[in-house]
């Protein structure tokens, strides 16, 4: 078969399109009657509501409605007219149409007149506008009645666009003289669910140039939902949603459940709570390879749930998939990290003073010992000089030594001076009070110094022995990165949050961030000292208390391995917040319930109910939290390691001195030519003479 030229195909296509358009508009009334209806509708809306801007989306068939006398007979309001081609695919609009729709939404237009001859174009326009939020679904919509709008594929639209009226034209009845064309004004049956077949609800009838009943065309459909059942999907996340299991049933409580109960009373609906089938693994849910979503978000995206409870963060990611209420609180999101004990009991003897204090004490000891030796040396020389002056020159030195003043022998040698000075520092009294007023005065003041120093040391030592051992904790992101612990949390979006962080520390955490589906598994890894888990501080508090409570119960039943329990770390919540995230309740995308729910939620927050419910939810958890042990002045063997270490050091030094003396006796003294083991006195007399 020969191919037709391109221009011939184009001509055929245009003819087919024109033929279809003629078929579509064959029975459509484009006269002034429709213009009169729209004028009356617009005037009624402007009179009853605050209209900021009106957007008319029409085609060439109905363009003449919005010309001429239309604007003379309506209230003056800003008006945006968007004309689309009859062949334009509004599921992928042209650039001009996109820009016009975006500008209308930016300007805050809250009334839409979608008057198109082709009902398929309307459905594709609504689908596109709902998906990409180019239409304000909570605005007021006026459309032509078309059976193609009510196909089952588009029923989900009428759960989101509820402030809408459909204008249906009825011809004049043949054979009746007084019969004139009339219009049926109907709307969606919200809040009643659409079951299989869409049946619109009549609002009013326009005939003879006016509305027959004078009802309000756009009445509030969300203030009283008439006891309708709304599906509420929830995810357990303390304190927002708390689940307690009784036999085979679950009792759901928490802050968001209390908020839901309040909203249900004020808006008159019955919540039906349920969990997604994959809630145990998928939790909040994320995008799958086929483009669908799992978990709680999957229920919202697929339109199965009307409301979502699960501690949803007010983030662009969640806002793109659902509608979020105004935040009812803000939570600190941080890491749960392992805690380490500093086993420094072996150095308790030196802990009461800092390094610079110990250096000062040592310097004072050396300086004071040297001063004592200097003063004693001065007195000995003075005594020797006086005795030499009084006695003959041939008087022996031994005789002089026997006449030394009392007590000067304590400091007569530098080694003895340092030893007795150190003894006074340990509050050991001198065997004799030295003579010489300068040494006595120095001894008195040095005793005062020793008393103050020893009292301070004892007090600090008592506090160290009485208090529990200090703990090593991670409290900043920098400390977490430096610790080189593996980090993790739930969901790929959390990892993406750290990877796209503006600071280098957050990026380094995101490089090795693990996706953990089970918080209990994360707590076990943290207790082993090899992991840090990211979540809200309240949930981390619950996780740490639950871990500790389970260990206590298991220990009471003798089911815990003693070695593993001893080696497990305590769990510590990092004090620095990574981010203070606002928390909201979720609604399905473009939900009509959100505006009124926001008003009630604002009042709930203002009167302090959220704070009260939060305290109630966390009270039991905080009461079970006993992270700080009761401080008691008890001394155990571990705290006294320092005493045994000091004793061991003394034994070691004494043994070394003994070995040194033994070596000196055998290798130096015994090998001296003057050594006589039977006359040692003569040996030492000769040695003293040589010195």
UniProtKB/TrEMBL annotation:
<dbReference type="InterPro" id="IPR019594">
    <property type="entry name" value="Glu/Gly-bd"/>
</dbReference>
<feature type="transmembrane region" description="Helical">
    <location>
        <begin position="357"/>
        <end position="380"/>
    </location>
</feature>
<feature type="domain" description="Ionotropic glutamate receptor L-glutamate and glycine-binding">
    <location>
        <begin position="239"/>
        <end position="302"/>
    </location>
</feature>
<keyword id="KW-0325">Glycoprotein</keyword>
<dbReference type="GO" id="GO:0050906">
    <property type="term" value="P:detection of stimulus involved in sensory perception"/>
</dbReference>
<feature type="signal peptide">
    <location>
        <begin position="1"/>
        <end position="19"/>
    </location>
</feature>
<keyword id="KW-1003">Cell membrane</keyword>
<feature type="transmembrane region" description="Helical">
    <location>
        <begin position="406"/>
        <end position="425"/>
    </location>
</feature>
<comment type="similarity">
    <text>Belongs to the glutamate-gated ion channel (TC 1.A.10.1) family.</text>
</comment>
<dbReference type="Pfam" id="PF00060">
    <property type="entry name" value="Lig_chan"/>
</dbReference>
<protein>
    <recommendedName>
        <fullName>Ionotropic glutamate receptor L-glutamate and glycine-binding domain-containing protein</fullName>
    </recommendedName>
</protein>
<keyword id="KW-0813">Transport</keyword>
<dbReference type="Pfam" id="PF10613">
    <property type="entry name" value="Lig_chan-Glu_bd"/>
</dbReference>
<keyword id="KW-0812">Transmembrane</keyword>
<keyword id="KW-0732">Signal</keyword>
<dbReference type="InterPro" id="IPR001320">
    <property type="entry name" value="Iontro_rcpt_C"/>
</dbReference>
<dbReference type="GO" id="GO:0015276">
    <property type="term" value="F:ligand-gated monoatomic ion channel activity"/>
</dbReference>
<dbReference type="GO" id="GO:0005886">
    <property type="term" value="C:plasma membrane"/>
</dbReference>
<keyword id="KW-1133">Transmembrane helix</keyword>
<keyword id="KW-1071">Ligand-gated ion channel</keyword>
<feature type="transmembrane region" description="Helical">
    <location>
        <begin position="445"/>
        <end position="466"/>
    </location>
</feature>
<keyword id="KW-0406">Ion transport</keyword>
<keyword id="KW-0675">Receptor</keyword>
<keyword id="KW-0407">Ion channel</keyword>
<dbReference type="InterPro" id="IPR052192">
    <property type="entry name" value="Insect_Ionotropic_Sensory_Rcpt"/>
</dbReference>
<feature type="transmembrane region" description="Helical">
    <location>
        <begin position="641"/>
        <end position="665"/>
    </location>
</feature>
<keyword id="KW-0472">Membrane</keyword>
């Amino acid at each position: 078969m020969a191919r037709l030229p391109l221009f011939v195909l184009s001509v055929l296509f245009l003819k087919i399109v024109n033929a279809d358009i003629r078929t579509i508009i064959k029975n459509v009334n484009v006269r002034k009657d429709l213009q009169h209806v729209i004028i009356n509708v617009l005037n009624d809306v402007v009179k009853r509501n605050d209209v900021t801007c009106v957007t008319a989306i029409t085609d060439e068939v109905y363009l003449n409605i919005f010309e001429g006398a239309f604007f003379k007979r309506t209230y003056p309001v800003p008006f945006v007219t968007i004309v689309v081609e009859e062949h334009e695919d509004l599921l992928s609009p042209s650039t001009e149409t996109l820009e016009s729709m975006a500008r209308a939404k930016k300007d805050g237009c809250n009334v839409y007149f979608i008057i198109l001859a082709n009902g398929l174009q309307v459905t594709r326009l609504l689908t596109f506008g709902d998906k990409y939020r180019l239409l304000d679904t909570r605005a007021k919509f006026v459309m032509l009645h078309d059976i193609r709008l009510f196909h089952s594929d588009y029923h989900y639209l009428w759960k989101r666009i509820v402030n809408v009226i459909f204008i249906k034209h009825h011809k004049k009845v043949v054979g009746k003289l007084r019969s004139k064309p009339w219009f049926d004004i109907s709307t969606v049956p919200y809040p009643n669910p659409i079951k299989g077949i869409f049946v619109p609800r009549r609002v009013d009838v326009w005939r003879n140039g006016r509305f027959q009943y004078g009802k309000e065309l756009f009445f509030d459909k969300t203030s009283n939902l008439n006891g309708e059942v709304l599906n509420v999907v929830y995810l357990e996340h303390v304190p927002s949603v708390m689940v307690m299991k009784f036999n085979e049933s679950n009792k759901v409580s928490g802050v968001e459940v209390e908020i839901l109960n309040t909203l249900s009373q004020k808006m008159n609906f019955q919540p039906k709570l349920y969990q997604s089938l994959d809630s145990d693994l998928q939790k909040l849910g994320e995008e799958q390879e086929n483009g669908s979503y799992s978990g709680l978000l999957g229920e919202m995206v697929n339109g199965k749930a009307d409301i979502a409870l699960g501690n949803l963060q007010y983030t662009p990611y969640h806002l793109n998939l659902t509608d979020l209420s105004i935040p009812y609180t803000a939570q600190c999101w941080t890491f749960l990290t392992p805690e380490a004990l500093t086993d420094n009991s072996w150095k308790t003897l030196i802990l009461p003073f800092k390094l610079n204090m110990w250096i000062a004490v040592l310097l004072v000891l050396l300086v004071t010992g040297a001063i004592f030796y200097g003063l004693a040396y001065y007195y000995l020389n003075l005594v020797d000089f006086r005795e030499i002056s009084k006695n003959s020159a041939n008087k022996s030195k031994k005789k002089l030594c026997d006449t030394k003043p009392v007590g000067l022998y304590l400091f007569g040698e530098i080694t003895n001076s340092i030893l007795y000075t150190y003894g006074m520092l340990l509050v050991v009294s001198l065997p004799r009070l030295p003579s010489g007023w300068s040494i006595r005065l120095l001894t008195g003041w040095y005793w005062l110094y020793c008393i103050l120093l020893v009292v301070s040391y004892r007090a600090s030592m008592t506090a160290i022995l009485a208090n529990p051992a200090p703990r090593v904790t991670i409290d900043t992101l920098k400390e977490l990165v430096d610790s080189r612990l593996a980090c993790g949390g739930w969901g790929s979006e959390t990892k993406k949050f750290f990877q796209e962080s503006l600071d280098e520390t957050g990026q380094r955490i995101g490089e090795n961030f693990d996706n953990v589906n089970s918080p209990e598994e994360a707590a076990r890894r943290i207790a082993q000292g090899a992991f840090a888990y990211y979540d809200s501080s309240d949930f981390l508090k619950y996780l740490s208390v639950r871990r500790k409570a389970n260990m206590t119960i298991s220990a009471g039943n003798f089911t815990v391995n003693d070695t593993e329990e001893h080696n497990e770390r305590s769990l510590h919540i990092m004090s620095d917040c990574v981010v203070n995230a606002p928390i909201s309740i979720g609604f399905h995308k473009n939900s009509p319930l959100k505006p009124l729910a926001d008003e009630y939620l604002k009042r709930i927050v203002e009167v302090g109910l959220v704070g009260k419910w939060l305290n109630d939810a966390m009270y039991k958890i905080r009461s079970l939290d006993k992270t700080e042990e009761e401080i008691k002045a008890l001394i155990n063997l571990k705290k006294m390691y320092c005493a045994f270490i000091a004793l061991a050091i003394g034994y070691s030094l004494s043994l070394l001195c003994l070995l040194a003396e033994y070596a000196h006796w055998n290798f130096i003294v015994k090998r001296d030519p003057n050594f006589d083991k039977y006359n040692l006195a003569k040996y030492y007399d000769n040695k003293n003479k040589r010195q």
